[in-house]
Amino acid sequence: MASDQVRQHTVAVSNRRTLGTDLMVREGVPVIDMQKVEGLGVELVKACEEWGCFRIVNHGIPPELMAEMKAVAASLFDLPEEIKRRTVDTEPGKGYVGRNKVSPFYEGFSIDEVSSTDEFCDRLDVSGHQREVIYRYIKALRDFARLLGQKLMEGVGLARDLFDDGWFCQLRMNKYHYCPESVGLTGAGLHADPSFFTILQDDEHVNGLQIVDKLTGEFAPVDYVPGTLVVNVGYIGKIWSNGRYYNVKHRIRCFEPKTRYSIGLFLFGPTDKKIVAPSNLVDSEHPRLFVPIDAEEYRRVRYSTELRTGGAVDLFRTNTE
To answer: Could you report the per-residue pLDDT of 162-207, keeping only the tens digit for each?
Structure first.
């Protein structure tokens, strides 16, 4: 683990300079150590509220497995087009997405429910080794997500699991075909995720992720820090937290003509019950903002209305505002 780079990044995060009386310029998203003993839950909650995005160090996923998974993803994108299209889905946000006029540099695969990994692998005729890597990677991410959820619950004063095995999760692999003509352009347009959390392994060689800073409203880079994962808060996280968490808008920009890969696990919601804010996050100063919501229903509404940067969630608000 490149501890020096992490330490330098953490110091940069703590360095803030004041503009005027109350506007702060913040340099870099938080880097949170999952091995921290005291105050970890509170630190996670604060990052969710103030940034909606943070990096995790000491997450427990072996770097060798992360490298293997990236190699597997790259090999899948190298398959012939007719084979890749075996995983196309008619529902937006699912299955294989090829390069097109709207997104000429982007290509993506998804395992739309991680319990259906065998079906995805069978359609692409993946090797036994590739299948094993995908399974180990998904298990490692879900184990990390379970720990993350436990610590998050501790941070809001609750003692129970949040992301258990009953949560609907999607694994998405992304490839950005950057070239000299794409420099300065957008690989993925501005959006916020329809998930509670997105856990992202970004490219160690090619930056590009930018978030909208909650304080300034301007784009802030999320530069790569060796050995870390990025966690983004999505709209389901905003709903569950009764509006306290910042559902961060973000985009992918091209800064150099190099191929960029990323792999994300989207934690959408439980399959057997609706998302509702815990009672201890609702009080006279924070009345309940959203009706109980089925995560899959929210995804369908979001894509059918094409409201990907905020409007869809407003359709599920209560009348308490």
So the answer is: 987 689 999 999 999 999 999 999 999 998 998 999 999 999 999 9
Q: In sequence order, what are the residues at sequence separation of 6 or more whose Cβ sits closer than 8 angstroms to the Cβ of residue 32? A: 40, 43, 44, 47, 54, 55, 56, 57
Q: Is residue 283 part of a domain?
A: yes
Residue where the block lists tokens 């815990």: 278
Model's pTM, two decimal places? 0.89
Q: Domain of 107: which CATH number?
A: 2.60.120.330
Looking at residue 22, its amino acid is D
Residue position matching structure tokens 């090999």: 75
Q: What is the pLDDT of residues 31-50, one digit of tens each?
A: 999 999 899 999 999 999 99
Q: Which residues pair with 290 in a beta bridge?
A: 317
Contact present, 192 and 310 (Cβ < 8 Å): yes
Structural domain total, the chain: 1
- Cross-strand partners of 251: 210
Q: Which domain holds residue 107?
A: 30-314
d(CA 185, CA 155): 39
Q: Which two tokens stand for residue 234?
A: 């999505």
Cα distances from 162 to residues 243, 269, 278, in angstroms, run 17, 10, 11
